[in-house]
Specification:
Number of strands: 0
Number of helices: 6
Number of domains: 1
CATH topology: YheA-like fold
Shape: flat
CATH superfamily: YheA/YmcA-like
């Protein structure tokens, strides 16, 4: 019987060789060489992180902060490279979510049915 860690390593290699991952990596490299895009993306991600930390701490996000986040999002979406990056991240996220569902199916067989009683 094969080792589950060996299969995980194989899955890692397959993901790294996928068209979706290679495209995402290429977009990251392009943004890294574009000072404006890099700064815009970093500012947006920093704002996202700050708001997520507030939520995790149970602090209510103000209307002003929500509007600022929305404005930042709209701004970065207008940049072609950043927009493509976000789309690529979303596609890869869907794949990883699908893989996660597949590999956790055995646990669902054990725990999923008892939660439906």
């Amino acid at each position: 019987m094969s080792n589950v860690y060996d299969k995980a390593q194989e899955l890692k290699r397959t993901l790294a060789e996928s068209e979706e991952f290679i495209g995402l990596k290429s977009l990251h490299e392009q943004i890294a060489t574009d000072e404006v895009a890099s700064r815009m993306l970093n500012n947006f991600r920093q704002l996202q992180l700050e708001l997520q930390q507030k939520q995790m701490q149970g602090v209510q996000i103000t209307e002003e902060e929500a509007q600022q986040a929305q404005q930042q999002f709209e701004l970065v979406q207008q940049h072609e490279l950043i927009s493509k990056l976000m789309e690529a991240e979303q596609r890869l996220s869907v794949i990883i979510g699908d893989v996660n569902k597949i590999i956790t199916e055995p646990l669902e067989e054990i725990y999923g049915e008892s939660g439906q009683e």
